[in-house]
Amino acid sequence: TADPLFCGCGDIMSGDDNNEDQRLKDLVCEMCALMYEKGWATGTGGGFSVRSGEKVYVAPSGVQKERIKPNEVYILDNDAQVVVDANEASSRPLKVSECTPLFFNAYTIANAQACLHSHSQNAVMATMLCGNEFRITNMEMIKGIRKGQSTESFGFYDTLVVPIIENTAREAELKDRMAAAMKAYPDACAVLVRRHGVYIWGPTWEKTKTMAECYDYLFEMYVKMKSIGMDPTMPPPNESDSANENENECKKAKSSISKAISSTK
After folding, report:
1. Which residues contact 26 (CB under 8 A, 6 or more apart)?
2. Which of 37, 54, 140, 239 is catalytic?
């Protein structure tokens, strides 16, 4: 059966323009509710934004994310100017998300179409165990992460790298640090914020959601591996041994072939 949370959102970019605003507002609300269920948006934290053409849809700030209504979603233009002020349609005072400048980093630098901000404990714990980068390799879920703006994805044997920036007193003040990290790590689709959370973006809302789930899985695995003394940045010893054995076998085979050719001359 269809997931009731996302009924009607699969064709979110199709249909007539008159209904697009409503569909995208619904999507923002549904994504925020999902984030709350996953523990990524507790205590009014976290947020979600999606872009379509000249419009950007953003959840309000400082409200319980699982209870946001469609008429409380802001609409901005591509210059981050408010087009539809949700505060005018709501029965409670609202303000546009504190995450907005960070969402626009994803739109302007990475040409993303959606951006998610998670306060996941897995992400926060990972930042407390790492230096300036999060690194992990030889994990199946790495394959769910795209390489920057390309259409390629990382492979199982690749090392996934996510930059980590230091937190600031105000969310909006992270804008320049996040932008610098994005430019320094063009293959990344995420930026971790130490003791705070993570920003994740993608070419569609579906891929952004998928990558957010993969990233969170990998952050959790990193923390668990560290807790039992395993190094998430290194391949398993048997993988290295197997690779060395294969290399040695290839060298032996080449040597045998060379000797066989020499003996026939």
Report:
1. 8, 9, 70
2. 140
Active site residue 140: yes
- pLDDT for res 259: 65
Measuring CA to CA, which residue among 224, 220, 242, 223 is closest to residue 157? 242
SS3 per residue for the chain: CCCHHHCCCCCCCCCCHHHHHHHHHHHHHHHHHHHHHCCCCHHHCCEEEEEECCEEEECECCCCHHHCCHHHCEEEECCCCEEECHHHCCCCCCCECCCHHHHHHHHHHCCCCEEEEECCHHHHHHHHHCCCEEEEECCHHHHHCECCCCCCECCCCCEEEEEEECCCCCHHHHHHHHHHHHHHCCCCCEEEECCCEEEEEECCHHHHHHHHHHHHHHHHHHHHHHHCCCCCCCCCHHHHHHHHHHHHHHHHHHHHHHHHHHHCC
Ranges of residues in the chain whose predicted pLDDT is under 70 = 1-18, 239-265
